[in-house]
Amino acid sequence: MGADHLAQTNALFRKNLVIQRRACKTNCCLILFPLLFCGVIGGLQIAINHASSPEASVRLDCGCSNVSVDENAFGGMDCPLGCPLPRAPRWPPALRIPLPGYRAVNDGLFPFTDLPDASCRGNGSCAATFLVTGGNKAFVENVTNNMFSAQSASVNLSADASGLSDFVLADATRFMPSKYFLEPEISTFLQNKCIPNLTLSFPIHSGNGTKSRDVGCSEGLMLWRDSTWLLNDELYRGYYQGNNMNRTNQIAAAYDFLSSDPGNFNLIISYNSTNKYDYYYDEEDPAPILNEAVSLYTTPNMVQVPRLTNMASNAYLNLRGNNLKMSFDFVKEMPRAARHISERFDMSPLLGQLPFVWTMELLFPVILTNLVYEKQKKLRIMMKMHGLGDLPYWTISYCYFLLLSLLYVLSFMLFGSVLGLTFFLQNNYGVQFVFYFVYMNLQISFAFLMATYFSSVRTAAVTGYLYIFVSGLLGDFLFRLYVEDVFLSRSWITLMELVPAFSLYRIVYEFSQSVLLRNFIPSSGMQWIDLSDPKNGMTSVLTIMVLEWFLFLLVAFYLDRFGSFQNGIRKAAAIFRSRLDGNSSQAAQNQNIQLPEFKASVEMDRTDIIKEREIVEQILQEPSSGYSLICDNLKKVYRGKDGNAEKIAVRGISLSMSRGHCFGVLGPNGAGKTTLINMLTGFSKPTSGTAYIEGMNIRLDMDRIYTGLGVCPQHDLLWENLTGREHLLFYGRLKKLKGAALAEATEQALRSMNLFAGGIANKLVGKYSGGMKRRLSVAISLIGDPKVIYMDEPSSGLDPKSRKDMWKAVKSAKQDRTIILTTHSMEEAEVLCDRIAIIADGSLQCIGSSKELKDRYGGSCVLTVTTAADGEEDEVERLVRSISPGANRVYRISGTQKFEMPKQGMKISEVFQAMDDAKSRLNILAWGLADTTLEDVFVRVAKESDMSTVA
């Protein structure tokens, strides 16, 4: 970065530092917003932990190494899940069947009458119903009749538990263990027909020894259905349409034996998969309630599919009569590591990813609106016109937003960790910071890119907040489903992650999933080693974000510089052609010159315009150092919209402005004055033609031209939260002033525009009046010794004294500079301007000094005569025509008449002599003779332009 860029960076940094210091309360509130979010979540978490019973928690420091396990005995361990299980005990396989009060009965819900009568619910004797169907009904009935063993008396297996596999054990309890002990919950066994008081006794091993368990008998009812459709319909009704969705007509399971026969055995088993989540039922409310703790630790004795398959297989083998049997003795849980159950209630998993995503995205609209604000107020182009380059602007702006984002992220992580949110505690801090850092850079570059498409702060703010709201919802309700869909191609996930919001959602989602594993895997959470796992996609997300980070910055910089891809290509092509020709200015000139649209008759009469064009052509062929600004056939056309015709704002104007002079541009409203200034200052691009400022082409070298410009725009472009002195210091630094020279130039500018007294210089500009803002804009344009100064109606809104002060400052600033002034004040133009050009309807009408214009377009004198009697008016008219036969009466009102008298052939002494003689015979109250004013010239030229336009 060169010396100029360092000076500009220093100026912008100091200016932004002052602005942000004044907005410190807003910035602090923004950075501390994560404290509010984490405080609410952490407060709820602490409150719930405080209200929770201490008995509901599981200690993590228990020891199970001294617990002996008899692998030859059935049973569990009195050790919590927080401990390792080096040797797994044997578990009796068991079915999960509905509670007696919720089993299917004949209560009108089903169209079948073979279900048990509803009166069985009174004594809890309702059978567990199994539905069967198939292609061979007789064969199916023979198989189902052999599924349950038949016992005529109670059985005691305490001596030898090996025969336990001959019985179909089942669980029909309100399973809700209070201490998470791993004991099998077997409450009954199934028989075709239960006799009174039929029981089954078997041993259960626990940490305290061996104990016997007695369970009663429940009937298993096998009911035939004619089709799979009827079977499915009944299953659905039982689970989802019974008693207001409370599932009080449940079917235990269903078998479809398909085309099975004695030589071919096939079947489909239908069962309630929600059993694996261990629903329990409240005594007062029969609706199923999911026990979260139990759902995480499914008891291994619930082996639905293997046990149901074993029942049918053994029945088939028994039917074949070959004394074969597949014994299903026990199941074992594999040895496992300790499962850590937190003693504290954690809100993080319950919140999901959406609140975290919204909180992280909150800075996007803040950054976007800040960028669009300077664009909407034209502050960016104002700084650029005073020499601020793109690189310093982007560097300082980017660094500020990055610093704000880093403080925001660190605040989020700090407060979340202090308040105990496992989302931050469990995941590696280094991993979190890397991903958040890259995302924040991506978010800033994305905001820079989006800022190029907005010109209104309000629109940008609404769009920004709508983006984070909608993208968050889409991530939670759409993108998450795609991520969890194992059958969806990962390429589609990668494509969706090209949207920055979805990349952030994927990061938060994977961090959350890693935290959820803490109940199963010690030292869980996202670690560095986990980035190599392709299943979580973290490496892919990081790569996408880094690539998009730089891509968005490049595209944003390109659009910011050229406005559109097409303009950039055109400018690059023009520069390339100019470099090939060896002379960029001449190449651009040859490319852009077009013939102006003038009417030949009008052009031929205006020798001053023809002469000015010849001067411009001569200067272009033989460059002269005495001219600071040369306009060569400048033209601006605005394309028509909504069916309207094109608007030609400037029609091929050629001008030359020498150094040390003030050049005035006059014209009625809408004549094209401001458009001309906008083209010369870079506000808008010429449609054709070009201009040269200090030998540099405005089409190709505008960045270099800006370093020597001073601009006072038509509207005041100021920061409301900076003082007048701070404005001048900032623009002075942009013009390479420093130290004592900067202080002296600032004080001089304040005094020259009468902004020094009364502490005005140290007041915020937001408290300035319109005139004070205007004076400050003029002072800004003069500071730093610019070579060319543009002033667009600088005296508008100024009182007479301030106007005189401004004129004095402009006169003293003309030395070795070129000042281009547009104004509606003819007095101001006469006082300040060495040469004046009048523009009407986008065309140059005349050019010259004030005296030359008055001589050329105002070749008459104005005689005004006021008489007391109306009858003398005709006599006065005859008198004037005797003096000047070509005199023309302009108006006649209440005895006052105004005449225009051609100067040719008229002597002023004769006028005075004639009026003295007339006083003796006419009652003349007053008379006066005046030369033509610049205002008269302006009105005349404007009228001629209107007439030529109509013609």
Short description:
The chain is built from 33 helices and 27 strands.
Distance between the termini: 58 Å
Q: Per DSSP, what share of the residues sits in E-state strands of 2 or more residues?
A: 15-25%
Number of strands: 27
Task: Output the structural class.
Answer: alpha/beta
Largest sheet: 9 strands, mixed
Uncertain ranges: 54-63, 175-182, 275-301, 583-605
Oligomer: single chain
Tally of separate helices = 33
Shape: elongated
Radius of gyration (Å): 47 Å
Q: What level of helicity do the residues show? A: 40-55%
**Average pLDDT number:** 79
Domain ABC transporter: 629-866
Membrane topology: Multi-pass membrane protein
Family: Belongs to the ABC transporter superfamily. ABCA family. CPR flippase (TC 3.A.1.211) subfamily.
InterPro entries: AAA+_ATPase, ABC2_TM, ABC_transporter-like_ATP-bd, ABC_transporter-like_CS, ABCA, P-loop_NTPase
Textual characterization of the structure:
The protein is α/β, with parallel strands linked by helices and 951 residues long. Among the domains are: 32-43 and 345-562, no CATH class; 90-332, no CATH class; 859-931, Lrp/AsnC effector binding domain/regulation of amino acid metabolism (RAM) domain (Alpha-Beta Plaits, 2-Layer Sandwich). The protein is 45% helix and 16% strand. The protein has 33 helices and 27 strands. The strands form six sheets. Strands 2, 3, 4, 5, 6, 7, 8, 9 and 10 form a nine-stranded mixed beta sheet that branches. The protein has a six-stranded mixed beta sheet with strand order 19-20-21-16-22-23, sandwiched between helices. A hairpin with a 2-residue loop joins β25 (888-893) and β26 (896-902). α9 runs antiparallel to α15 (457-484), α10 (363-376) runs parallel beside α14 and α19 (565-581) packs across α20. It is elongated, with a radius of gyration of 47 Å. It starts with a helix and ends with a helix. Residues 54-63, 175-182, 275-301 and 583-605 have low confidence and may be disordered.
